[in-house]
Amino acid sequence: MKKLLFILLILSSSLLHATNISYEVSMNEPHTHYYNVKMSVTDYEKDYFDIQMPVWSPGSYLVREFAKGVEGLTATFNKKMLKTEKINKNTWRIYAEKANNVVINYNVYAFELSVRTSFVDASHAYFNGTSMFMFIDELRNTPHNLTIIPFKDWKKVSTSLPKLKGGKGFQYQAPDYDILVDSPVEIGNQVTFDFTSAGVVHHVAMYGKGNYDIETLKTDMGKVTQACTDVFGVNPNKEYTFIIHNLTHFGGGLEHLSSTTLEVDRWTYSEGSAYKGFLSLVAHEYFHLWNVKRIRPQALGPFDYNNENYTSLLWVMEGFTSYYDELLLYRAGIYDEESIMKKFKGSINNIENQPGNKVQPVAHSSFDAWIKAYRPNENSYNTTISYYSKGSVVANMLDLMIINKTKGKKSLDNVMQHLYNEYYKKQGRGFTPDEMKKTLETVSGLNMDAFFEKYINGTQTFDYKTIFGYAGLTVDIVVDDNVSLGVSTSGNKIKKVYRGTSAYVGGLNVNDEILAIDGYRVHSDISDYILGRPIGEEVSILISRDDIIQTITLPLLAKGSKRFFIFNESGKKNSVHKKWLSQK
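^ that's the sequence the OP posted. Answer follows.
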């Protein structure tokens, strides 16, 4: 009994003296684009400890070096200055001298308004935690508190972080560091409204003026979020937050566990393709609350915030999501069948006419996202393919193959459900590429060896005629035999040279300025001087390269691009077609 009391006394003492990490964020002069951050570390009595700023933001696979925004870091104990030392690009060592309450102050310059970075000006503040909050590695799994002090006239804070129990004002608590930085924050006087869908209360924060109608958004966003939930039959959130920036430029979206940030053109909300594009973005980021944030490769959690986190499965995480962000708009009744088929055809025409599709397998595209996808150059079109666009076509092919093989009993939905239930719910971990392949085989009954060899780890072209034929559809492929120079230009200056074209074979370079073709000065679209000429005819092109005038003579080659047309010749829908395109 005495021993038990002694153990309880020790446990009670340890709880009373558990290390506490808290942050206070203010923006005293928002027009200067600086945040003021105070990080307090209590009951962590060390001779020294290291604090680190992440180098990247999960969901955006590029090292962004967030430490570059940090200025004026100091540490104190009872107002006494402590020694600090920067020991590498994103790590500061705090010589704490066993102090039980260390206060670290630093400023963060934030003037990049994107879904993955942070920003503050006289109109509002927005931040992602990865570019704001430093961490102590061994304490990442402890609770982290946050207090936000808005600028004097700002009244609202929008975030998915739960309020601190018993806290006052804008005080929040995250169960660990990962949740803290996975919860973006909007501060200002944004328009806010709520809607309920799929049993979840959705909070919407709208920054910036736009032509949106709140009641219309409630209805349509409700349809989309319900359609996403229907894929899995369960929504893991009780509440969810949309932060929407309405701007003159737009930058897509970024997913989080219980929220998302979207950036759109402020005039995107009128009826038409732009508005449907917005709803597709809503579907994409919302679908990620399952696919990426809970269904995930092993490499994507727990995160290494100091280095790249490599995975060859982004074609599943982003590609499958890109397939569903269109398909679910059809299921929600926002697209008709003609519209969704146009989207599918567009995706195929996009990848099949990009030279890089025959160079880079989609698994390699995923793995090399860190060095290629976010760092494109003038030759990227020739050597790479997007795991978004190629992955969406892979998903389309798999969906039809599974429906056909199982005679309509299963679809890609069942693959997603299996991944969610087996690896997230049951095992609580991410999956490997082999486990992804095994899941597809388990659900479909197909042997996926050849599929992965040819289309995931290889660059072969899908047998579109056979696969769409499962749904009773006909595929026609028309090759463009017109001649083409094979460049894209800005004015008369070459910006891209496409592999296998006249310009590529003949030696034209990026940054060449085309002055004349066959002795005629070029004033308008370069294609006007080429169109209608026979294949093989030589043309003489006068260029300026590094301000040196020279002539390039080259043979004209056929454009060679393909157009894929998919149509229902019979006008009837077989069982595969009905299962594939059903408005649930």
